[in-house]
Amino acid sequence: MTVPVFEEYEPAIDCTCAGCALQRRAAAARAVPVRCGGHPAAHGARRALVLATAAGMVLSCGAAEAAAAAGHSAKAPRADQDPAPEPATPQGEKGPLKGAGASGPPSDGSDSAVLAKTTRAEIINRAKRWVAAKVPYSMEKYWSDGYRQDCSGYVSMAWNLGTNEWTGSLASYGTRIARADLQPGDMLLFHNPADPSKGSHVTIFGGWTDYNRTHYIAYEQARPRTRKQSTPMAYWNNSDRYVAYRYKGLGAGTPGSGSSTAFPGADQFGPGADNAHVTRLGEMLVARGGKRFYEIGPGPVWGAADRRATQAFQQAQGWRGAEADGIPGPDTWRLLTTGTGRDIPAAVTGGSPNTSFAFPGRGYFQPGQSNSHVDRLGRQLVKKGYGKHYVSGPDPRWTEADRRNVEAFQRAQGWRGSAADGYPGPETWRRLFA
After folding, report:
1. Which of 57, 163, 286, 346 has its CA 20 to 30 A from that of 413?
2. Please, which residues have CB within 8 angstroms of residue 291's CB and are 6 or more apart in sequence?
């Protein structure tokens, strides 16, 4: 609804309601004010109409803002939908750091030589600090570290820039990359030059949540506070217009380690391989939960232990078939050298270390969840003959079909009541994967 504009109705300068905001934008776009041409005797009635209309806008605005503050639309999403759809993310302009954290590293997107050096782990750790602190969203306020509490201020903080940037300038600090090359610490940016206040947004990429790469973990500053959650690639709206960038000042490896993340090549691994890369692979696999595969510590000669441990790590990421053949490729190497991805789960008692998976926890199997554990559960249910409720087959998103198939399996064990509620527990998991 458009609020009628009369000379007698003037929006308050400090009012943030939708009615006054609309009036201020309309007034700014006009060279001269619109005057009422009606008879003076009608002004009183018209003024009453305007005030009533404005009051209605204020009341409706309150409801809309309450819904936005909850991070959801007014209509609650179903259990099988993605949670917390796209919120409004207005942002401030480019400017210096403010407050106690005003002293920051030099930052100039035109010359990467003066950018503060950082690593992927450091970027993600900085992003996690605001998540833990539950920093409230604001395009006007600044957190204790000096960064503006909006989406672009958040990425400026995560990338350790010396200024508060906005979506129109952040790209100058990165190198454009393909989405297929995204790694933790990169950003996904959408800047709408036609109207920057509508839709423009930026997130920190935290890693893929499924092997089909349809969803990823997004670290972002959005109403009502900083959040980390599974997000459709690249976002709910304007998905095809998001561009991936990698920070120009990104360093290789862990600080002080002197090690490179560059993949040495597939020919360095497999039967007959004997080199330092095999040793390093084994050491990284042991650190990620693969110790049980090695009777004797990792060494330079490729063996069955290296293949089994590599395959277990690949399967932990939700990969299957050729993606989990036990031979490391660029993606496997990247996750290991950067310390990202999922660790190898502990073996389930009574199972083979190559085929068993430890129960990951009940929290992965709830409405709104999307992860590789749900996909693995679904495929095992189908394999065991309990997949009749799937219409299009299992996938990483938890749905009512998953719950009903789990319930059917539980009832087949003779369980009833809360023991057959359709949500897997440790015993359900053990019997499914035994």
Report:
1. 346
2. none
